Amino acid sequence: MEFKDYYKILGVEKNANKEDLKKAFRKLAKQYHPDANPNNKAAEEKFKEITEAHEVLNDPEKRKRYDQLGANWNSYKTTGSGNSEDWFRQYARGQQGGGVNFNGNINDLFGNMGGFSDFFESFFGSGQRGQSGGAQRNAARKGRDFESTMIITLEEAFKGVERQIKVEGRRLKIKIQPSTIEGAKLRVKNQGGKSNSGGESGDLYLKIHIAEHPFFERKGDDLFYNLDVNLYDALLGSKEQITTIDGKNIVVVIPKESDPGKLLRVKGMGMTANDGTRGDMIVRINVVLPKKLSQKEINLVKQLKELRK
What we know:
alpha+beta, Helix Hairpins, 35% helix, four-stranded mixed beta sheet, HSP40/DNAj peptide-binding domain, single chain
């Protein structure tokens, strides 16, 4: 199993803060997002790799465990002994502690993007842990409850999705309703551990985690979209095409003399609420200043400055 250098994948230093990670993630995600690269398997794999790296490094606990692993992995490679995969899985189990494992396939859990790598699954699992079911002292005790985290995309949270997972050899279909929120919990009755004393099986609990989106930020039922606009279009006005959460291409009019941070509201293009209404998409203008100006450009800017006096 190949060690994945998540810092290298995102092109950041090991001391990168959350803002550095976000900038790197957004930049690469725009370049390799499947919507921008239709039918390009190489770009799709790269996008999955970028998403996986960000998922780990942006989470303080996952990042801490990953950084601990990095040092141990390098030490292990130096010794050149044993089976790397066996050692790796043993190390991961030691970090996770005891309990009953949930045998879900993270490729199924993550969705149509194809899932995270074997490296991610072996080290972080699916956030799994088991808990004892019931406290009764009679012979027929309930089996253990299983808990796990199911990762879905924001698009899947918007439209809903059906997953097929495997629990102790059993294949289950899990339906995620549209407009699911971060942290939502699903209970699947009697699909946990089997009882050893003739009692009913435990339950399966799934906690929903919505992977961070490279373009949208969800706030309630509204979606915020950061739109990069060059200085000239911000001054003179322009039209920009944006893809909405449901895959529609719309044109947003950038008013002339738009200030950095200006918000443009697009009605009814956000998430769907429980009552069937939709929130709004709010486009935030991010004015990108030109870099590496030529001498001619510098002179023109100076002339503009004099004119503005």
